[in-house]
């Protein structure tokens, strides 16, 4: 319990946030990119398992958009953007058996995460008729 208004609750020092990212995507924009560029776009941005997952749903554009938003959110959470030679497919968004979204990283993205001492990646995806949103929280491991 806080004794006064001036005191602030603090997170444990051995588990801190390394980065937070959020991205909002217009579903129609991703749908148009898929229609225009087809495999050229899909293979540049999404791994084969991501493509299979999205095409396994009634509205693939909805799911591609959510995954795109998560990937953008990861780049924002890392704070590097494209300056570090990262690739879209180095971030893979999957779901655990209960449906919870998860992120797996490889290549340069994995190295950047290691440099930041990231131990956990928390992910949230949501969408409605027009927009998809992805949020990522990177948590440092215990020192």
Order of helices and strands: EHHHHEEHEE
Number-wise, the strands total: 5
**Count of DSSP-assigned helices:** 5
| Content of β-strand | 25-35%
CATH topology: Ribosomal Protein L22, Chain A
Output the CATH homologous superfamily: 4'-phosphopantetheinyl transferase domain
Q: Per CATH, which architecture?
A: Alpha-Beta Complex
As a whole number of angstroms, the C-alpha radius of gyration is 17 Å
Largest beta-sheet characterization: 3 strands, antiparallel
* Structural class estimated from helices and strands: alpha+beta
Mean pLDDT across all residues, rounded? 91
Short description:
This protein is an alpha+beta fold.
Please explain how this structure is put together.
The protein is globular, with a radius of gyration of 17 Å. The protein has helices at 27-37, 39-45, 48-55, 60-78, 107-115, and strands at 17-26, 91-95, 101-105, 118-127, 131-140. The strands form 2 sheets. A 3-stranded antiparallel β-sheet has the order 1-5-4. With 143 residues, it is of the alpha+beta class. Strand 2 and strand 3 (101-105) form a beta hairpin. It has a single domain (17-140), classed as Ribosomal Protein L22, Chain A (Alpha-Beta Complex), CATH 3.90.470. Helix 1 (27-37) crosses helix 4 (60-78) and helix 3 packs antiparallel against helix 4 (60-78). The protein starts with 16 loop residues before the first strand and ends with a strand.
């Amino acid at each position: 319990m806080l004794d006064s208004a001036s005191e602030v609750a603090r997170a444990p020092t051995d588990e801190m946030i390394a980065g937070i990212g959020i991205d909002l995507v217009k579903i129609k924009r991703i749908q148009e990119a898929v229609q225009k560029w087809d495999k050229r776009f899909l293979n540049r941005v999404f791994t084969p398992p991501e493509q299979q997952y999205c095409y396994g749903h009634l509205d693939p554009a909805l799911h591609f958009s959510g995954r795109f938003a998560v990937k953008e959110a990861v780049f924002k959470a890392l704070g590097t953007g494209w300056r570090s030679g990262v690739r879209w497919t180095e971030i893979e968004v999957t779901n655990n058996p209960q449906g919870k979204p998860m992120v797996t990283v490889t290549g340069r993205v994995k190295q950047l995460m290691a440099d930041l001492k990231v131990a956990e990646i928390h992910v949230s995806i949501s969408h409605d008729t027009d927009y998809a949103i992805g949020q990522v929280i990177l948590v440092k491991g215990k020192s």
